[in-house]
UniProtKB/TrEMBL annotation:
This is FAD-dependent oxidoreductase. Signal peptide: none annotated. Transmembrane segments: none annotated. Keywords: Oxidoreductase. Residues 7-397 form the FAD dependent oxidoreductase domain. The keyword Oxidoreductase applies. The keyword Repeat does not apply. Pfam families: DAO. It comes from Pseudoxanthomonas gei.
Length: 416
């Protein structure tokens, strides 16, 4: 049965789609969210749940091309490119490589820092206002190093980050170990970002959905969107449950956004960057705060309800396999640092596709050459961290209100 005409349809029930929906409902708009699977079942589900203004620097950085070439044929490397013939991937990589310079690094870092800082502050407000039960804690995040040269490099980079309002604290290895009994000896040093936070991402998404429904938003899961057509006064979305009509539509499909946008004549420069995680029962001895084991690029997050190892970046297309080599690299990296690197029980082994743009900035705003279609995609590894700001920015733009941050750096037009 066809639905009545909605005010705003949001295609995609991940963290960005739900955050946008909630902000729109708060702005007085009527919202219906459509998701082909279950809400929050994509990249929102199994990431490490860190809220990280500290991660403003993009993946495209000076020296990354050389590192990527070294790692290309190393299946357990932190960044892995599966060799294959894929013209879209190679075009993406060419643009990515062209941005691995200091000028573009600074431009992306500045734009990422603005949306991350806004989202960090807004998330604290949302947790309180909507009573989001998601194990949110404002306890900072630590980068921990066993390799002295790597520690020295990041300590120098922290001086650059101060320009973007990102504060940090530097610890020598012995001083850090005195306060962190979960770590083995041999730490060269650590960098703390006190402005970071953490939450349990699957619970955060579930709580966004609850808050949305309580305020009158509608969520239809298991509803496959097949096509979209604009009319003079809105949009018609064909689904496997019949047509859905609305005044506006927001495409928030994560790594699947390019396939759908192709049907609208839009080429979104997004590649799926595959990430992995393993969730365990909580060990007896755990770190006091989230940490990134930087020499091995392994993120460690602790909640009352569990313990997770995650990270890695794999460009292998839409490969649906769980790569045992890369999962083992997470455990092996953690074992170098932690007395108790895993919990007694494995609760979940997971992968998800991050929607990666070559400049590591999201695509937010009205779709070019379309009156009623909006894009909210391309958040890379930081969808959860950027969610509150992205949702509010989209709601402000759709409602014609002055946004809190300048939307210009995130518009699709930068790629045209």
């Amino acid at each position: 049965m066809n639905s009545p005409r909605d005010d705003v349809l949001i295609v995609g029930g991940g963290v960005i789609g739900l955050a946008t929906a909630l902000a729109l409902v708060e702005a007085g708009r009527g919202v219906r969210v459509l998701d082909a699977g279950r809400v929050g079942g994509g990249a929102s589900h199994g990431n490490c749940g860190t809220i990280t203004p500290s991660h403003a620097p993009p993946l495209a950085a000076p020296g990354m091309v050389a590192a990527g070439l070294r790692w290309m044929f190393t299946p357990d490397a932190p960044l892995y490119l599966k060799p294959r013939l894929d013209p879209a991937l190679w075009r993406w990589l060419a643009h990515f490589a062209a941005r691995c310079n200091l000028g573009d690094w600074r431009q992306s870092t500045r734009s990422r820092s603005l949306i991350l800082a806004d989202s960090r502050d807004r998330l604290t407000d949302w947790v309180g206002r909507y009573q989001l039960q998601c194990e949110f804690a404002e306890e900072g995040l630590d980068y921990v190093f066993r390799e002295q040269a790597n520690f020295d490099h990041y300590a120098r980079e922290c001086e650059l980050l101060h320009e973007f309002g990102i504060t940090s604290e530097i610890f020598g290895g012995e001083a850090y170990l005195r306060d962190e009994p979960a770590l083995k000896p041999g730490v060269a040093g650590a960098v703390r970002f006190p402005g970071d936070a953490r939450l349990r991402p699957d619970r955060y998404v579930a709580e966004l959905a609850r808050a949305l429904r309580e305020r009158g938003g509608v969520i239809e899961d298991q509803c496959q969107v097949e096509s979209l057509h604009e009319s003079a006064d809105g949009v018609v979305v064909a689904t496997d449950r019949g047509a859905r009509r609305a005044g506006e539509v927001v495409l928030a499909l994560g790594a699947w956004s390019p396939q759908f946008a192709n049907g609208l004549g839009l080429r979104l420069p997004i590649q799926p960057g595959k990430g992995y995680s393993i969730t365990y029962s909580r060990p007896l001895v755990v770190p006091k705060r989230p940490m990134v084991l930087k020499d091995r690029s392994v993120c460690v997050t602790v909640w009352d309800s569990g313990f997770r190892l995650g990270s890695t970046m794999e460009f292998s297309g839409y490969d649906t396999s769980l790569n045992a080599i890369r999962l083992a690299a997470l455990e092996r990296g953690a074992a170098e640092y932690l007395h108790e690197p895993v919990g007694a029980t494995v609760q979940e082994r997971w992968y998800g596709w991050r929607p990666m743009t070559w400049d590591d900035l999201p695509i937010l705003g009205r779709a070019p050459r379309h009156r009623h279609t909006w894009l909210a995609a391309g958040h890379g590894m930081l969808g959860v961290s950027m969610s509150a700001a992205s949702g509010q920015l989209m709601a402000d733009l759709i409602s014609g209100r002055q946004p809190a941050i300048d939307p210009t750096p995130y518009r699709m037009e930068r790629f045209l």
